[in-house]
Amino acid sequence: MMNLDGKVILVVGGAAGIGAATARLCAARGGTVIVADRDEAGGAAVAADCHGTFLPVNVVDEASVKQMYARIAERFGKLNVLLHPAGVLKGAYVPLDEFSLETFRSVLDINTVGSFLVAKYAVPLLEKAGGGVIVLVSSGAATGGSSSFAYGTSKGGVNSLALVLTNALAPKNIRVNVVSPGNIDTPLKRSVIAAEVERRGKADELEKAVANAHLGEPEGVARVMAWLASDEADYVRGMVTTR
Fold this sequence. Notes:
- The protein is α/β, with parallel strands linked by helices.
- It has one domain (8-184, 218-241): 3-Layer(aba) Sandwich (Rossmann fold).
- It has nine helices and seven strands.
- The protein is globular and about 55 Å long.
């Protein structure tokens, strides 16, 4: 089993789903875990499970992101790993002619611009540690089609951002990957299934639809994330696809 002892690990979007599972696993494997999220109650609960630290953050607010890193610098002096599974999905199954620009921009701000800001301001702290790891989270929806025009587009942007960061940050000894999960049992995925069931007018079949989706567990993706955070994944670059 890989060892994360001595590593200061920030999980942005750690209040639920893949982020929560990843934070708990990294703590179990010896990491010092910081959970950041705009959901303060959920994030604080996961941080308590990890015997770690909770920091509130709004990833679309540059000042909020900068403040989060300032607090990390003050308390820990460095950062070894940034894991960023935070994201939203809006507009599932909304037809193109009804899809609002407001929704489109909101999703891109959170998923794509948020990834940019979180990665940008992590770099100085990673450099203080002599280098480190950034793992962004995309989705199979970026390449295989999505229920939402905004979501698929935003996650395609995350893929491209990670690949550009890979080359730009390699001279700083910062290793970058993007994890692209498939159908995982998270609140976000269940909301998409619920939207599809509602669209078909079969609200009473939600649980059946969830079962038929054969969703993977967040803990499976968490194992990939924790491995990428470890020194064992030193040779891995670019995109990692999961179920």
